[in-house]
Structure formats: C-alpha cells, structure tokens
Specification:
Elements: H1 35-54, H2 59-63, H3 74-93, H4 110-113, H5 119-141, E1 149-151, E2 157-159, H6 160-186
Antiparallel strand pairs: 1-2
Helix pairs in contact: 1-6, 3-5, 3-6
Length: 191
Amino acid sequence: MNAEPRRWTQATVFPDMWVDPDDDPRETGTSGTDERSILLDYLRRYRLTLQLKCAQLNAEQLARRSVPPSTMSLLGLVRHMAEVERSWFRRTMAGQDVPKRYCTPDSPDEDWDGARADDAVVAEAWQAWRDEVGFADAYVAGTADLSTLGTTRDGDTVPLRDILVHMIEEYARHCGHADLLRECIDGRIGQ
C-alpha cells in the first residue's frame, strides 16, 4: 500500500492557492463586461484549471484511479472532457456527423475505462482535448449570436448560451474531482 502523501502547495502568498496570484495563468488582469466575454472567460479559466491539476504528473499518476469501484482518474477527466467538448460543439452546435472520440455502444465509458498509464495514451488524450477546445473556440468566435440554436441527438434545440453555461458547470464539477484526485496522488492542494 502506498504511503499517504503529505499536503503541500507551490504557493507562497496564500497557503490555500495552487500558485501565487502573479504566477496564475488564469488571471488576465481584465474582467468581462458583457455576457459573451464573461461566459468565455469562465470557461477559459476552468479549462486552464484542469490543465493545472494535471501538470507535472507522469502517465502512471495521471491514470491512477480514485477509489474503488470508481474508474475516475485525471487522465479519464481529460478524455471525458474531450468527448464532452466534441459532443456539444461539433455534434450539437455545428451539426457535424462525427463519431464519439472514445465511447461506443459496446464500451459507453471508454473515456474513463481506456485511461491507461501509457505515454501514448496520455499524449493522444491531450491532443484530442486541445483539438476539441480549438474547434469549440473557433465555432464560438464565428458565431455572433449566443441565441444560435444547435440540435441535440434527441432532436431538441438548445442555444449556444446554454451550452456555454453547461460547459462551465461541467468543468467546475470535474475540476472539483481533479482537486481531490491530485491531492491523493502527490498531496498538492489549492483551489
């Protein structure tokens, strides 16, 4: 059995932070003034938070599962969020007929289950995530109206604004998971 890691932070200013405020890539020194900029800034911050929680870990650490029987891991979170970004922005909003990245009818939880301690699996997951975030960002930038409708797989319509709020919620929930997963791996703490 592995020894329980000791809690620590890289921050020197505030002991409950991930990094010092001047070193935090999420802080831009500006704040949004309209609905679009506020939503996009929150989404940007949560995407960066996921990256920060996974930083400086090797493949074994990224693939380490939380607690049985859960299959949750940081690598699984990256794969899952690539799948979620793809589903909402490519499939629902852009109407692309693209397959899921990981999940299949035979393996509906493959985003989690396929998260293995393998450098190639890690590299592929990060590239998939970056590709999907890049597509999402380009789609949103090219869409002037947040009321633009997408169509779900069930045939319902949903405005882009709802997708952005949902993505913020999805990342917020999973960044909370990432906090706990990371602390269990090496003891690092911080919001």
